[in-house]
Amino acid sequence: MRPFIQFESVSKAFGSVTVVNALDLAIEKGEFVSLLGPSGSGKTTILMMLAGFERPTQGAIYLDGKRIDHLPPYRRQMGVVFQNYALFPHMTVAENVAFPLEMQRVPRAEIARRVERALDMVKLKPLKDRRPSQLSGGQQQRIALTRALVFEPSVILMDEPLGALDKQLREHMQLEIRELHKRLGLTIVFVTHDQSEALTMSDRIAVFNAGRIEQIDNPQVIYDTPRTRFVAEFIGETNLIEAKIASVDNQVARLSLGAGLSARAHAAGGLSAGQTASFSLRPERIRLGMAPEGSNALDMTITDCIYHGDHMRVQLARDDFSLVARCERLAGHWTVGAPVVASFDPRDCTVLAQ
Amino acid sequence: MKSGVLRDRSGALLLVLPVIVFLAVFFLWPLWTMVTAAFVDDAVSKVLPRTASSIVSWDGQGVPSQATRKALVQDLSAASEEQALGEAVRRLNSAASGFRTLLGRTIPAVKAAPDPAQVDLAAVDPRWNDTRFWVALKEAMPPYTDRNILAALDLKRDASGIIVAEAADVSAHRLIMLRTLMVAAMVTVACAVIGFPYAMLAASLTGWKRSVLLLAVVLPLWTSLLVRTAAWFILLQNEGLINRALQAIGLIDSPLPLIFNRLGVVIAMTHVLLPFMVLPIYSVILGIPRNLMSAAQSMGAGPIRAFWRVLLPLSLPGLLSGSLLVFMVAIGYYITPALLGGANDQMISSVIAFYATGTANWGLAGALGLILLVVTTVLYAIYGRFSTSQQVPGA
Amino acid sequence: MFRALQATFGIAVVVFLLMPIFAILPLAFTSSVFLNYPIPAYSMRWMHELTTAEVWRTSILNSLIIGSGATVLATVLGTLASLGMRRGALPMAGLLRTMFLLPMVVPAVVLGVGMQIFLVRLGLASTYLGVIIAHAVLCIPFVIVSVSAALQGIDPTIERAASSLGARPVTVFRRVTLPLAIPGVVSGAIFAFATSLDEVVLTLFVAGPNQRTLARQMFSSIRENISPTVAAAALLLIVGTLCLGGLGALLRWRQGRKTAAAAA
User: Which of B120, B53, B66, C157 is nearest to A83 (CA)?
Assistant: First the structure.
């Protein structure tokens, strides 16, 4: 039994430039999967191949067990929400929403009923006779979403649909889309370059870099145990620590950090003494205090302290080894130049693939 | 993927093909026809093919051999197409006057003879003993000629085939070309002097004032050229509005000569072509960020220096492409000089039209047309390189 | 001081640009036989002359016939070409574009000479078809410029959206691309008609006495025996152009309504 959507070693090249490289990806029915990555990482190309606007150079794409990569877009039954909404400027809101139903030759009376119902659902019924140009960005976004949903496609594809909205509206729409996903049991593939958007909305996130998936997992795993340096740096903020491994004992590695410091880290298999490796340590996992706590405690000096409203970013250093810690605003009063002890759990210091 | 590209390409080609064919047949081919008309000279050799091949061996002394004379008689008796024969006669007569009457006598005699082979040309008309006619006949035989293009440049070949200048009183093509360039240059300068500050003014204004200024430019563009030319006729004539107004305020006593002279042509052409100058400059100036001038002033440049060092250099491309456009259109102008100019203000287009429709001298019309076409094409290529926008403003 | 200078200059140029157009119109209603001011009395005699005199009447009719023919021909060919060039799938697209715009650049007299010789050979000289073809050559660039601009303004993702919503390529074209391009096609057609209406030089070369157009008739009238009929014809041309512009706006508006009604 194949997964609902499956990419099987799909590659895409434009001329001599390979944009997607031997991609395997499986998405289950009802899942909300985000494709996250910087621009040019190939995520939009993957979405466009799924929608049928681009053809893979190699490989196959399956939907519900059937191969679809040779089908034209209009035969794929996927609702696409485009970055700039792509509403038909010469049609009214109602006509835009009716369009996919007309294409399916739904009887006229039923079209009218379904358009009404769909517009009611997004609370835009009063605007049904307006042209898209007379709507606000948020309203256009909702119409684009409604238009993609109204013909009950098997999959909804969204290409940075919230990119053009301001922050507040964007957060509101994130919740609305999530809510729709749950209520209607939709399968959604969502392209974004905004990591916080991906973290809040998705069941799983696929992090893309240079045409490959660096890591695909649920948001918590992606954030807490990034597998590669790229993922660790792209999602959230992190301390990247290059360290020499002094010893490995019972899944705990002893690291020598330089400047005479050493620490313990959780070691997955494959690490051995004498080797150099990269580790990721999230700033909010570092606790600052006057006395050592737990198994890792580094004596350092505060070099800078930046106020961020809801938290503080504290820069620590000892000789050429430095860390960034993020702590509660009220957690203490830190003065630049004062000594401090930085503590963290070995499990929060995760090793990264080279 | 590959087949998709091919499908797109052949689909696109299918859509573009009708225009390509249409323009190739009804645009490029006529132009080519005109160019060949300047160089092809087969009116005579087409009608007299045997003579053509026979007379080649004649050395130009005395009278050609018996065989050549026989060939001519044969050709003349075989010539059946009235029109082609007429063209050949006209061509020969223009090379040696008298040829028309000579052939007018010879052809009926040849046709009437029971056996054309027995006809003795010298007996039909003694002028066949004159070397002059045979030389003209021989020189009319090569199917291609540079005669027209030389004539277009006031040059000709003398008896020995060397290129020499035509006598000054015979032909004045160079003078007319020079005049064409002069008029076009005057119009271009006038358009630039008026159009540049006008475009700057329009770009610096806002609201209804800008709208009025732009409307004043666009409205004439939408008005028929003939309407505008007729309107200038009304304004410029001796009893016209301008002369009357000047007389009324006592500036002049008798009407100024404004029409049927250079001044009238330049005024009307400036009016017609001013939009082509204003619009490119305006669009370039509009594209210059406003804060550049503020920045220059913040760095201590006064308004004049800021203009000189910032705005002027940045708007120069607009001025350049506007000037090229105006000059290019102006050198091909026909209607305005024809209606508002005097005999000494006719430009090259009028001369071409005169040769083509007046005297049916296609060769010379074609040669002059070729020169105008080449100059225009070169200017257009330069314009294409300099102009920032892809579109040629509509006329 | 500087501002006053600016204002004077601006007003002077506006007057220079507009004065001729406004100067000629009242003369359409002069009672005098001279195309000149002052107007002794207002009369309809020249309008009457324009609509009844044989030469003028047939020339107006000819202009309409030839203008319509050239407009249809140029609009169809130019629109097809613009659609074909749209996606950039063609090789040597730049060269093609240059060739399509060239008729706008080549001096009319040059094209006229070539056209005259060529059409004589084809047997199309002094025929309506010949004049229509000659005018269409001049009109095609305007249609291409106008339609291409309209097509360029269409966001390609809109067509993708239609396709993803289940519309086949033909439907996408009919329901989305064409309605959005129609304003460009209409204004291209209007440009084409106006170009044909105003064409004199090519007409001088290729038309016979039977195809004498209004512009051609005005040309010879100004040249040979100028009379206020020219002003009446000018008025007709200006009003005609205005009507054409209005018609274009109306069509665009109606088209918008119609696609709206069809979709509902």
Answer: C157
- Sign of CA pseudo-dihedral C164, C167, C171, C176: negative
Claim to verify: residue B178 and residue B295 sit in the same structural domain: yes
Rounded Cα–Cα distance for residues C126 and C207 (Å) = 4
Backbone angles phi, psi at B66, to 5 degrees: -55, -40
pLDDT digits (tens, 9 = 90+) for A54-111: 899 999 999 998 999 888 888 888 889 988 888 998 889 999 999 999 988 899 999 9
Domain interval for residue A161: 5-227
B118 shares a domain with B204: no
A55 touches chain B (CB under 8 A): yes
Burial track B255-265 (b if 16+ CB lie within 10 A, e otherwise): beebbbebbbb
Please give the pLDDT value at position B310: 83
**Interface contact C251, partner B, CB < 8 A:** no
CB count in 10 Å sphere of residue C198: 24
Does one domain contain both B282 and B336? yes
- ipTM score for this prediction: 0.89
In single-letter form, the type of residue at position B151 comes to A
pLDDT at A13 > cutoff 60 = yes
| Partner chains of C (3+ C-beta pairs under 8 Å) | A, B
The helix (H) or strand (E) run that includes residue A52 is: none
Cβ <8 Å between A57 and B4:
no
- Scanning the structure block, which residue is given the tokens 């597998």? A227
Q: Are residues B229 and B359 in the same domain?
A: yes
Among the candidates A227, A254, A281, a domain finishes at A227
pLDDT tens digits, C18-76: 999 888 888 888 888 888 878 888 888 888 888 888 999 999 999 999 999 999 999 99
* Residue C199 in tokens: 């064409």
- Bridge partners for A328 per DSSP: A311
pLDDT digits (tens, 9 = 90+) for B123-139: 888 888 888 888 888 88
One-letter amino acid identity for B18?
P
Q: Is-contact A305 A285, C-beta < 8 A?
A: no
Q: Which of A227, A261, A276 is the last residue of a domain?
A: A227
Nearest chain A alpha carbon to B3:
A55
User: What is the rounded distance in angstroms from the CA atom of residue B224 to the CA atom of residue B139?
Assistant: 48
Output the pTM of the full model. Answer: 0.81
Answer whether residue A232 is part of any domain: no
The answer to whether C140 contacts chain B (CB < 8 Å) is yes
Q: What's chain A's average pLDDT? A: 88
Q: If DSSP codes are grouped into helix, strand and coil, which group holds residue C219?
A: helix
What CATH number has the domain bearing residue A343? 2.40.50.100
Beta bridge partners of A299: A341
Domain interval for residue B226: 173-386
- Residue C30: beta bridge partners? C42
